[in-house]
Amino acid sequence: MKQNLQLSIKGTDFKTEILSGLTVAIALVPEAIAFSFIAGVSPLVGLYAAVIMGFVTAVLGGRPGMISGATGAIAVVVMPLIAAKGVDYLFPAIILGGVIQIAVGALKLGKFIRLVPHPVMLGFVNGLAIVIFKAQFSQFKIDGEYLSGTPLYIMLGLVVLAMLVIQYLPKVTKVIPSPLMAILLVSGIAIGFGIETPTVGDMASIKGGLPSLLIPNVPFDMETLMIILPFSLKVAGVGLIESLLTLTLIDEITETRGSGNRESVAQGLANIISGFTGGMGGCAMIGQSMINIQSGARQRWSGIIAAVALMAFVLFLSSIIEQIPIAALVGVMFMVSIGTFEWSSLRILNKVPKVDVVVLITVSVVTVIEDLAVAVLVGIIMSALSFAWENAVRIRARKKTDEFGRKHYEIYGPLFFGSATNFFEKFDFKNDPQEVIVDFTESRVADLSGIEAINKINEKYEQYGKNVTFIHLSQDCIDLLDKAKSHIEIDHDHDPHYGVVYDA
After folding, report:
1. Is 86 left (phi over 0), alpha (psi -120 to 50) or beta?
2. How far is it, in rounded angstroms, from Cα 58 to Cα 300?
3. Measured distance CA(91)–CA(276) in Å, rounded
4. Taking 50 as the threshold, does the pLDDT of residue 2 lie above it?
5. Number of C-alpha atoms within 13 angstroms, CB side, residue 403?
6. What is the number of H-type helices and E-type strands within the chain?
7. Angle at which helices 118-135 and 354-369 cross, to 10°
8. pLDDT (tens digit, 9 = 90+) per residue, 261-288?
9. Sequential DSSP letters for 269-329
């Protein structure tokens, strides 16, 4: 894994990395412009963010091949702040969000992304695929009006042509990534034949200079902190959730392992630099990451090349890039959306537990109508409650009376907050004999609620003047009972003891 995280030259397919990087850079342009419009800032603010985020995370991030830039998720989060306080407050909010992300990585909290259940992952992927697909329809507008008649048919024809090239070119040759070939072919046809169709330049000019150091023009006081803190927390949270879930997805596709904690630190540093250079910040981009991976890139060079190429577009090649038909990029993103959607999830809907189906669909829907962070949190909560309920009803007690007249309760299933009530109801305090033994050989006490349930059992038997003994409790449970100064009787003589065979 460490070898995968290094910026190495040995064994690198530079042709694939370069071509993939160029394809990603071209695809980043309309996305950055569109997200800038959503946030209410200049297109250069989004383009600078894409350059900084892409470069820093490509060099330092925990997932080679993953692309970061200005994203819709971050644009939606910061839009209310910009509308209320102006763009000056955007930059310190992004910087503080980056600091929070670095803290998450430094504390090694990125590992908690493993707690996201698979149905939530499927819902996340499907929801984002729908969001990517849906977002392309805004490109069919000129001056706020949807295309119609001949201009619409021309654009649709070019979109379909781009999609066909991406679908079938790999079956003929893989010398050049099919998304790049689609962009070049559609652009060549449109420019060569003088076809009137919307271009990147119709969205906005991308010409600009190098980003420069910017000190946020806001008061550095507690009032400013209170204004930006809620937005910084959202930037950090949404950015890390989208980045770490994208990292996990690419891990599965490439059958390699990235580092969530390293990615968290890199995302944070990238956002800090972005905030100090006039960028709107961002996070991992699943669409561009999928373009990169599907084009064959597997190392850091593609992300570096994409960022450098995007900066070159802004500095030197804006007049050329602005001539690229929007239809070519829409066709690329449509195919990314189709490739991102987990079609296998539709085939298993009637083969998996209904709860998982509900979670998958709910996360997909909430991702589309709300945002990713809310969707993932909703999915995790639903899955956690379902898990807790399933385990709560599993606790059982086998009951028997031995030759000495003692009542045995053999507990199996976890004892925790969800099962504590069911556990308590297993006992017949009034009718049980004088001596009761509760055996935890096949059970485990998982939390404080379980400890409290044991205490209540003990107290209830004491009320009836009966003696209860607990056996085979785990050591951590015994330690907790000792700390709580519980006056219950634990019989260690029945605990198993194991000898070790060694060669004398």
Report:
1. left
2. 5
3. 7
4. no
5. 0
6. 20, 9
7. 30
8. 999 999 999 999 999 999 999 999 988 9
9. HHHHHHHHTT----EE-HHHHHHHHHTT--STHHHHHHHHHHHHHHHT-HHHHTTSBHHHH
Which domains are seen in the chain, by residue range? 14-344 (no CATH), 396-494 (3.30.750.24)
Helical residues (DSSP H) of 61-198, grouped into ranges? 72-85, 90-106, 118-135, 149-172, 178-192
C-alpha 318 chain-centroid distance: 33
Nearest to 434 by CA among 392, 470, 406, 401: 406
Is residue 279 within 8 Å of residue 211, measured between CB atoms? Answer: yes
The Cα–Cα gap between 116 and 414 comes to 22
Reduced DSSP (H G I as helix, E B as strand, rest coil) percent helix, strand, coil of the chain, to 5: 65, 10, 30
Structure-token match 């059982």, residue found: 396
Sign of CA dihedral 293, 320, 325, 203: positive
What is residue 92's predicted lDDT score, i.e. its pLDDT?
A: 97
Report the predicted TM-score, pTM, of the whole model to 2 decimal places: 0.79
Per-residue CA distances from 139 to 200, 202, 219, 277 (Å): 10, 10, 39, 28
DSSP state of 473: -
Mapped onto helix, strand or coil, the DSSP state of residue 199 is strand
| C-alpha 185: how far from chain center | 34
**In one letter, which amino acid is 495?**
D
How big is the chain, counted in residues? 504
Query: By three-state DSSP, how is residue 431 classified?
Result: coil
SS3 123: helix
Residues 119, 356: contact at Cβ < 8 Å?
Answer: yes
pLDDT band at 369 (very low <50, low <70, confident <90, very high): confident
